[in-house]
Structure prediction request, 1023 residues.
Amino acid sequence: MIKPYTLGEIASFLGTRLVGDGRCEISGLGTLGGASPGQLSFLSNKVYLDQLATSQASAIILEEQFADRSTANLLVSDQPYVCFARASSLFAVAPALAPGIHPSAVVDSGASVSESASIGPQVVIESGVLVGEGSIIEAGCIVGRGSRLGSNCRLHSRVTLYHDVKLGDHVIIHSGAVIGADGFGFAFDGERLVKIHQLGSVDIGNEVEIGAGTTIDRGTIDDTVIEHGVKIDNQVQIGHNSRVGEHTVICGCTAIAGSAMIGKHCVLGGASGMVGHLHIADGVEVTAMSLVSQSITEAGLYSSGTGQMKTSDWKRAVVRFQQLDSMAHRLRKIEKSLEDN
Amino acid sequence: MIKPYTLGEIASFLGTRLVGDGRCEISGLGTLGGASPGQLSFLSNKVYLDQLATSQASAIILEEQFADRSTANLLVSDQPYVCFARASSLFAVAPALAPGIHPSAVVDSGASVSESASIGPQVVIESGVLVGEGSIIEAGCIVGRGSRLGSNCRLHSRVTLYHDVKLGDHVIIHSGAVIGADGFGFAFDGERLVKIHQLGSVDIGNEVEIGAGTTIDRGTIDDTVIEHGVKIDNQVQIGHNSRVGEHTVICGCTAIAGSAMIGKHCVLGGASGMVGHLHIADGVEVTAMSLVSQSITEAGLYSSGTGQMKTSDWKRAVVRFQQLDSMAHRLRKIEKSLEDN
Amino acid sequence: MIKPYTLGEIASFLGTRLVGDGRCEISGLGTLGGASPGQLSFLSNKVYLDQLATSQASAIILEEQFADRSTANLLVSDQPYVCFARASSLFAVAPALAPGIHPSAVVDSGASVSESASIGPQVVIESGVLVGEGSIIEAGCIVGRGSRLGSNCRLHSRVTLYHDVKLGDHVIIHSGAVIGADGFGFAFDGERLVKIHQLGSVDIGNEVEIGAGTTIDRGTIDDTVIEHGVKIDNQVQIGHNSRVGEHTVICGCTAIAGSAMIGKHCVLGGASGMVGHLHIADGVEVTAMSLVSQSITEAGLYSSGTGQMKTSDWKRAVVRFQQLDSMAHRLRKIEKSLEDN
Prediction:
């Protein structure tokens, strides 16, 4: 199914220097240790340097400094991992879709769909929707009234956009994601919780990718904003009125409460959390399953939690954790008594 | 698109005292700091008192005691935030749907759908289903055999109700939610895990709201129960056989294991968790990302976890956490040696 | 609706010894404390031994040693809980579906669907798909190009399989689950994040069950693998390139990062997490909301986190946690000063 490329074609596509046989056929990618002949591999982490000599890969992307350590065909680059990422697009197997609207799709007459767009089976497109050039909306997606997709977006199957959601260009959204559901806002009247209707929407920039099952809520008054280049993994929750800065990465299962302001080029580790109304500066990284419980004003690496232990040991540590304040007082008392002597 | 109201109409709708020009046209809502002329704002938190004088809002909802601090038109109320919530319904932009069944929907002949109900495109309604007056089932929803919706419910697009699920009146469920999937029950026979078929269902009261991607499992023998007025945010998981008491609030990404008994008027913070077979009293609040690991018998605020730290500092603290029991023993030994002297 | 069975029929189905009246009609299951006459119950946990004498159940499954403590009809077994699980299949109420393809389904002419399979309304089946004997694909499912289902699988409504996903036999997948979305892989080129196309797929063994809203990502180069008999609860995330060993149990809301290698017969507690590229040995159990932050080479029970506390006490403990390293140093200093004296 997958078209092979010559190594020369790949070198030219990547703009890398070729060492060896440019006519060598490459039909796929592999890791250094796992590649078969006919595959292209890469070295970006010195941990794998030992595998260079024995790799079965027909060609390897690597830095100049390691070029003399391999007898394979080589593509020489300062950024082997980035080149590998770029090369992966050549072998991508996600099915292409022809332009046009599948007859089972329900497209409102008041929607405007580019002729080069592709609308899959069982899709629903409501009135006032705009779908830009080359965008693909796969089977079972629902695009709510007045939502707008730029060019070359791809909604994988079963994505929901509520009404008035805006996507830039080259946005990818995976199956099951829900963009623009109501933010979670209620006022307690002493007896019951009165719903605060969510009058804003969601505004998503260019080249954003959103994972399967992720939910991004619409704003209460203004929009929830996801800036250009943000990458969001699966099952992430982003609360209403939040803003996520350009090129930030949010790993799977992260829970972000409402009105969060997250800077550019941040990394939120998997299953991390962030309580509402906090700010995070540019360049902050948060490790897995940590809770951001106060605003962070300086770039750097932040964590919470305790390390993993055998449960038998951990139970004792937890008891002591609960005595920690009293232990601190007792320690201080001893220090004073020793100072006094 | 949105119809403006006069301030007099809004005052009358809310039942608040009007100070100023009742003919003033209001076309939307805004925060004190962000509102434009033509918008209605509110003051419910004294933190924002300073913004009262400079707000561009054409009218402000506030308490009597602050009425002399503003020159805008005023709506005077003891509960400004609740009034704001009620006013938000006037400007809600969620598309209305006309009664009737979309031709692309598949409705079993053995289902009973009220004439005032609205069934969207690509919906599937199985046999024995009842849909009450004024209920709206949006595009792509699946309503399983024998499920019953009361009046004025709204299933946003792509909601699944499994078979025999019961919803009260005025229930709102957001896109991607799954109600009534099998509870997670298996018996290990020494070699493999034998499925325990889940013979109960899910019973949801009136005025419950359920967020996008949330899952509520059917009971093993009896029903999983969500009582009246409960509000559940996105991506919450509620295990089989649980009961959630009236007007309790469950924030996003919370994980509740099976057979949990949660009281009334509780608040479970975002990404919190609760292990199985525990009880929580009425009026308990749990802070974000805390794990309820024992039953809670008294109202109050509960937490677990550690605060966020720079990772470099945190790593040292984590090492010490693992030594905590031994530190406690050493502390006790010192105390004893000092006592003995 | 549910067909009653005689106790004799059930004893024969389970292969258990019957004590009492084999003609007794059983129409359902119940707990010891909650069962009504006509129901079958079980005793597997001695905690409930007291309820044996007063249970209203018409028959009880229990071990030989307790047989003389009850006057009900009895089914005697070494594994009462497993027998109860097996008996539950007799009373399962999940709707059956007749073989055939619903007229509203969109099935590509290049797909191959067994005549004994059942394809529900609004389903989409793309080219090259194989659906094995007796498999059921419920309403609104999307099965991507080239995916293969073995025999007797059941996809509940609104499941997505991306392209080239492989399921074994007797696989159950619940509503909203997404199998085969792109793994989360990007290379940072100094300015933006370059997507690494995910060229592998997902390979799922026999008798695997996958919960509602769960996501399992496709591998970067090789497949993500879920081995035979694995049971996965709702809203679990399994990152690309991971492998989950046979008969392992993963409870709800667990977040597993990429390239995780998890052994056989493990139990990952609810809302637990696992950072990327780690190994877990066979027979490891992880308690709820614990983070696996290092590989685990020995079977056993592991935990992280702190126990739940009143928030007022907890705040003090958290402050001390942040001082823990300094407390440890101060403790050591005191010990030294006492040793020196």
